[in-house]
Specification:
Blueprint: H1 7-17, E1 22-28, E2 33-38, H2 39-57, E3 64-68, H3 73-85, E4 88-91, E5 105-109, H4 113-117, E6 124-127, E7 144-145, H5 146-150, E8 168-172, E9 175-178, H6 179-193, E10 200-204, H7 205-211, H8 213-223, E11 226-231, H9 238-244, E12 249-251, E13 259-260
Helix pairs in contact: 2-3, 6-8
């Protein structure tokens, strides 16, 4: 098997390895949400997202897509969709940090749309982040609804222009990585943290937001691991959740009897 050169290759490997088992499971302890995606389901969302970006916004190599999104299962699909197009992700933590300038399209959580609209962004997609992927409600602004738009696009993606490993992949604060550099960083980080094939990682979304997408998304993919991503963590229920999800390692939380990445040898 050829070594992965692009982020999309990491998902393709997961799809070949185990298409039906859980790859990404999302919990929100504040709302009680639980969403489970197999590699096949995640790949379907990624393909639809990439087709939407390519066909409606001409996103491809050389394009920049700004994300104003929290760590979430839909964010994983969006990230991989952008990279499948060969475009760079501009990860913006705040609406006024200046990194929306020059973006070909902006994808933002519904609660961040108002501040972004004030900047005069023309190409804007809003995400409700509804657990079932439903559209926005109570919104009457100019942003197009990601959930409604994405469903109209195909389940198989073919890039009009092949992504280049040396093309820009991520701009995150002062960090800039090429598409190939993202894969290299993911492989290196997975090895450094001790993530191994078959691991089931419980990841605190708060820590994931600080660590960036290489840590919470690409490194597990590179290692052949799956992720249980938890937002608004209720610490009192973590041990039970880890047991029910057959968690083998954690990132950002300690659970007795389970190794914590970055701390336990």
């Amino acid at each position: 098997m050829a070594a992965p050169a692009l982020p999309a290759d990491l998902l393709a490997q997961a799809l070949r390895r185990s298409p039906a088992t859980p790859l990404l499971t999302w919990y929100d302890d504040a709302s009680g949400e639980r969403v489970e995606l197999s590699a096949t389901t995640l790949a379907n969302w990624v393909a639809k997202t990439a087709n939407l970006l390519q066909e409606e916004f001409d996103v491809g190599p050389g394009s920049s897509v700004a994300l104003a999104l929290p760590v979430h299962w839909q964010t994983a699909a969006v990230l991989l969709g952008v990279w499948s197009c060969g475009a760079a992700v501009l990860d913006t933590a705040a609406e006024d940090d200046g990194r929306l300038d020059g973006a070909d399209v902006v994808l933002a959580a519904q609660d961040r749309l108002g501040a972004i609209e004030e900047q005069g962004v023309e190409e804007l997609l809003g995400l409700s982040l509804h657990p079932l992927g439903m559209g926005m409600t109570g919104y009457a602004g100019p942003a197009r609804d990601f959930a409604l738009e994405v469903r109209a696009h195909g389940d198989v993606f073919a890039a009009w222009a092949p992504p280049r490993a040396d093309g820009p992949g991520l701009v995150l604060g002062g960090l800039e990585l090429s598409l190939g550099g993202l894969v290299d960083a993911a492989v290196e980080l997975a090895g450094r943290l001790g993530i191994v094939e078959g691991d089931r990682l419980l990841v605190d979304a708060r820590v994931a937001a600080e660590a960036g997408p290489v840590a919470w998304l690409l490194a597990p993919l590179a290692a052949g691991a799956s992720v249980v991503l938890v937002g608004s963590v209720d610490v009192s229920g973590l041990a039970q959740r880890a047991a029910s999800e057959r968690v083998t390692a954690t990132l950002g939380q300690r659970v007795d009897g389970i190794r914590e990445l970055g701390r336990d040898a």
